[in-house]
Amino acid sequence: MSEIVYLNRRLVPRSEARLSLFDHGFLYGYGLFETMRAYDGHIFRLDRHLARLRCSAQILGLADKLIATLNLAAGRQSLESACLETLEANKLKDARLRLTITAGEGDMTPDPDTCPVPTVLITAQNLVPLSADKYESGFKAALSSLRRNSQSPLSRLKATCYMENILARMEARAAGCDEAILLNEKGYLAEGSTTNIFLVNNGELVTPSSESGVLPGITREAVLEIAQASNIKTLERQVGLKELIEAEEAFITNSILELMPLTRFDGKPIGTAKPGQLTTKLLAAYRELIREAMQ
Question: Same domain for 42 and 146?
Answer without folding.
Answer: no
